[in-house]
Amino acid sequence: MEISRKIEDSYVSLFGKNSDIIIKAPGRINIIGEHTDYNNGFVMPSAIDKAIYFSIGKRADSKVCISAIDLNCYFEAEDINDLTNKPNDWSNHLVGVILEIRKLGLAFENGINVCFGGDIPNGAGLSSSAAVEAGIGFGLNEIFELNLSLLQLAKIAQATEHNYVGVKCGIMDMYASLFSRKNHVIRLDCESLEHDYIPADFKEHTFILVNSAVKHNLADTQYNVRRNQCQTGVESLNKKFGNIRTLRDVNLEQLEQLKTDIDPITYKRCKYILDEKERVMLASKALDNHDFKKLGEIMNLTHEGLSTMYEVSCSELDFLATEALKIDNVLGSRMMGGGFGGCTLNLIKKEAEVDFKEKISLAYQLKFGIKPEIYTANLSEGVHKIS
Ligand code: GLA
């Protein structure tokens, strides 16, 4: 059965009537530009055909009733305009969005019923959290005619992560979920928050995700630490050179001048970001020129940087990325997303798809005893209404 149908059926059996609206909110891949978003650099994500679906309806009273189908969890509160969040609870991804909308001075004239669930694997680095936040925000905006722009919805989703989930994430994930276009890659400038679309004309190539099944939990891991380390670098650089607000404003020469004055960890983190800034530009050019060999090489360098300089990889991801390159017709392989688990992104020749899946799966099973899930990344439309 289609997932959206399953969610709507649950909605009907729980609330006794059909919902007012069904929303599809996709997860994302990122071709290149890892950890550059919160350093005001560029990123190149796209939504994929894995998504969270929401059935949402207005209530006659002011209650909020949310059923998380996949988690088999239920949340209820009396007044949508007077919510408090529960620390460390799954419901924060939705309640936080309502609270952030309220902060804009908007009020809801009714309560809501919500059922949601989907097929974005949890903790796989495909941004299921951002999809939940983008999807519920988009749905509320529609049914209450709040007139919020997609950019406002992205900022609300990001603020939800910061204020109620505890991850000081950049804006890439929610932006990709909201703004993506089918068969296009977004080239997003995280400073101006402007983007353009690159047609995903990958010719005889395709992107394949291999899920290490190592679950990352960014809040529990080093994500926020990395963000602070970049900030420490910015402060030292600004003291010396002035006019430096983020690592976007820094060049390699300046960083090298400061190398002996800052601690080696801060240097490594900043060096990775500056290198990655450069790689995104080169990768973007390679994609425009359909130079997939080059794109693959750049992806490999990104993995190396993430593993050795930014230190957000893990042995499973390093193994998958190294092993992939031993297989014929694999042009590039790297860990993707925040790190410490999740998926590798692999650029391969389409003709090698079956062979690649078989070989990488076998190698991973032999080494770690885990059969990895493998997905072809079909680039999809961003959040939208499906009824
Ligand atoms: C996570 C964050 C994003 C981004 C990536 C790394 O997905 O949510 O904002 O920083 O990690 O590129």
Description:
The chain is of the alpha+beta class and 387 residues long. The protein has helices at residues 3-15, 92-103, 128-143, 150-165, 172-179, 223-241, 252-258, 264-288, 292-309, 315-324, 353-368; strands at residues 21-30, 42-43, 45-58, 64-68, 73-77, 112-118, 184-189, 194-199, 205-211, 330-335, 343-349, 373-376, 384-385. It has two domains: 3-200, Ribosomal Protein S5, domain 2 (2-Layer Sandwich); 205-377, Alpha-Beta Plaits (2-Layer Sandwich). The chain is built from eleven helices and 13 strands. Strand 10 (330-335) and strand 11 form a beta hairpin. The structure holds alpha-D-galactopyranose.
- Broad shape: globular
Query: How much strand content do the residues show?
Result: 15-25%
Sheet with most strands: 6 strands, mixed
Q: Which spans of ≥5 residues are poorly predicted at pLDDT below 50?
A: none
Question: Taking Cα atoms only, what radius of gyration do you get, to the nearest Å?
Answer: 21 Å
SSE succession: HEEEEEHEHHHEEEHHHHHEEHEE
Q: Give the CATH architecture of the largest domain.
A: 2-Layer Sandwich
Helix and strand content put the structural class at alpha+beta
The number of E-state strands comes to 13
- Integer count of domains: 2
Mean pLDDT: 96
- Number of helices, counting only DSSP H or I runs of 4 residues or more: 11
Instruction: Supply the CATH class of the largest domain.
Output: Alpha Beta
Query: What is the CA-CA span between the terminal residues?
Result: 17 Å
Please give the share of residues in helix.
Answer: 40-55%
**Which fold name fills CATH's third level, the topology of the largest domain?**
Ribosomal Protein S5, domain 2
Which small-molecule ligands are present, each listed once? Answer: alpha-D-galactopyranose
Strand order of the largest sheet: 5-4-6-3-1-13
